[in-house]
Amino acid sequence: MTALDLLSEHRCFGGLQRRYRHQSPSLQCAMTLGVFLPPTALAADAQAPARPVPALWWLSGLTCSDENAVQKAGAQRLAAELGLALITPDTSPRGAAVPDDPDGAWDFGHGAGFYVDATQEPWARHYRMHTYVVEELPALLEAGLPLDPARRGISGHSMGGHGALVGAMRHPGRYASVSAFAPISQPSRCPWGRKAFGHLLGPDPQTWQAWDASQLLASGQGPVGPDGAALPLLVDQGLADPFLEEQLLPEALEAAAAASGHPLTLRRQEGYDHSYFFVASFIGDHLRHHAAALLGAAP
Fold first, then answer.
1. Has residue 42 been placed in a domain?
2. 252-283 pLDDT, tens digit each
């Protein structure tokens, strides 16, 4: 088992905000990540076993690292009250050996791994973010920290919203709750997605469909929980988001949910943009959405 190296630890709303580094076999590089443990996860004394708690996995968006949501989303206070752990992975493999955008652009490469498993060179060796966040990292953290493997939720913002939706859709029963902020709803149709998928998955758009949330949902592959029931989707989208019409395409997700009969609450928020000010404004609703599924708490 790969070792977790603790880089920092801060007391936070009675719990602990930690940052770790580890060597990832999936990504073939060192990775950093954040973990917030609520007070209920902490042992009463050194001799007592820690109590496993449910965890919400948060996937961040383009240009972000593992620290953006930790510092800007404002989620720890309510997570501490609800008893939810928060896991914040990085958004891509990194390092001198990891290839970056060939044109030096910000929307692909370092900080922009798109949460898929690449099949094309030179990306395939390192860009396996889907396997990393859905399989490798949960196995590592659940073995070493007081996290309950039977109670996982997943959420994210923008590129990370896409990653959260696709992760839940491709792995029935793995998550008990799912939500997203301003997700890239149909990456096979938007410039960000077409660029990234072309590099990572190859030029054939048919191969992209298995990584497209709207396509998966329309085909009846909506997310289901451990009990086999459909997981309701909660999505928030700001109407002042500059990327709304060209990149995010929430209407595609809405149409796919209608076509497949999958439960979706798509909230269009007047005046809100794409920033973490938007995320922080509604993160409480999402935490309660996940707590209702993971803890039985009232939303």
1. yes
2. 999 999 999 999 999 999 999 999 999 999 99
Which CATH number belongs to the domain containing residue 143 in this structure?
3.40.50.1820
**Number of domains into which the chain is organized:** 1
The catalytic residue positions are 158, 241, 274
Nearest Cα to Cα of residue 41 among 8, 16, 5: 16
The Cα 214–Cα 179 span in angstroms is 14
For residues 261 and 71, what is the distance between their CA atoms, to the nearest angstrom?
Answer: 37
Residue 128 has pLDDT above 50, yes or no: yes
Give the neighbor-by-neighbor strand order of the sheet with 264-269.
Answer: 5-12, 15-24, 29-37, 85-89, 53-59, 147-156, 177-181, 233-238, 264-269
Burial class of residue 268, CB neighbours in 10 A (0-12, 13-18, 19+): middle
Q: Which residues contact 125 (CB under 8 A, 6 or more apart)?
A: 28
259, part of any domain: yes
Strand 5-12 with 15-24, pairing: antiparallel
CA distances from 280 to 119, 132, 144, 277, 286 (A): 35, 26, 29, 5, 10
pLDDT in tens, 153-192: 999 999 999 999 999 999 999 999 999 999 999 999 999 9
Coil vs helix vs strand at 53? strand
What's the domain range around 202? 5-294
Task: Tell me whether residue 299 is in a domain.
Answer: no
Strand partners, 180: 235
Residues in the chain: 299
The number of beta carbons lying within 10 Å of the beta carbon of residue 121 is 8
Strand, helix or coil for residue 15: strand
Q: Is 193 helix (H, G, I), strand (E, B) or coil?
A: helix
> Does residue 27 fall inside a structural domain?
yes
Which pTM value belongs to this model? 0.96
